[in-house]
Amino acid sequence: MQQNKSVTEFILLGLTQDPKKQKIVFIIALIFYTGTIMGNLLIILTIKFSRTLGSPMYFFLFHLSFADTCFTTSTAPRLIMDAISAKKIISYNECMMQVFSLHFFGAVEILVLILMAVDRYVAICKPLRYHTIMKRQVCIILIIFAWIVSFIHSISQIALALKLPFCGPNMIDHYCCDLQPLLKLACMDTYVINVQLVANSGAFCLSSFVLLMISYCIILHSLRNHSAEGRKKALSTCTTHITVVILFFVPCIFIYTRPATTLPMDKMVTLFYTIVTPFLNPLIYTLRNAEVKNAMRKLWSIKITSETK
């Protein structure tokens, strides 16, 4: 990636400059990142090798867990490394790659959550046509479309970042590279680019959240026509999805729908949706999903049995 800016590297100030607090950040971030990788990997392997989790919902959950893993990997390793490093330097090219990966995998996660809502809508509101509508080929096409749209979105974000000239201060008051903290360092009037950012990422997050909330309201309203047992099962699944949606979207909307102003809480809000939420997702989907838990038990029992023979 070529660039002709005078600034060739940035210094990430991180969450804190206090050495004692940095050690705490290192431990907590390492725990969360390790837990995220292990939890999502467990879900990925369970869905991959389980014969009982072949429905479209788990096909999309597989991609959500993969996107979660990549999304948190775009920021967490740098945060962990910088917490124990004297020099928190990131090159211009690495910074741009972080902007790209952060928006790419974040967009994938958003679109997969929408596809999961579509799957639940068809399953609950059109049960007789479910297998016809949500065929395997259709699901594959939808997920490919999600990845392509995410790539286009991230390209648009990196295009905005590449427009920014950096000729002065290179200290980013954040733990990762994103457009908001970079706008503060640019030697130009960033009003137009900030409007484009809000119109792109802000509108993308907000419209997706509103669409998801409307779809789940329709789904929950339609449950009144189901049996008590069917209503209980569908309600459990929808509650799980709504929890994940709120945990991910509310912080994103807070960050990307505002004008070019920074608040003291911005870094903690970003930390929540880039590191904490991906850590919580595997817990939410396994603790509240009996099918996933049973599939995990069966796989582990088969593995242990085969090893003892």
UniProtKB/TrEMBL annotation:
PROSITE patterns: G_PROTEIN_RECEP_F1_1, G_PROTEIN_RECEP_F1_2
Keywords associated with the record: Cell membrane, G-protein coupled receptor, Membrane, Olfaction, Receptor, Sensory transduction, Transducer, Transmembrane, Transmembrane helix
InterPro entries to which the protein is assigned, alphabetical: GPCR_Rhodpsn (IPR000276), GPCR_Rhodpsn_7TM (IPR017452), Olfact_rcpt (IPR000725), Olfactory_Receptors (IPR050427)
Cellular compartment(s): Cell membrane; Membrane
UniProt domain G-protein coupled receptors family 1 profile: residue ranges: 39-285
Gene3D superfamilies: Rhodopsin 7-helix transmembrane proteins
One Pfam family hit: 7tm_4
CDD domains, A to Z: 7tmA_OR4A-like
A GO term for molecular function: olfactory receptor activity
Major location (coarse): membrane
TM stretches of this protein: 24-45, 57-80, 100-118, 138-162, 201-223, 235-256, 268-287
GO cellular component, one term: plasma membrane
Protein topology in the membrane: Multi-pass membrane protein
Family recorded in the similarity comment: Belongs to the G-protein coupled receptor 1 family.
Protein name: Olfactory receptor
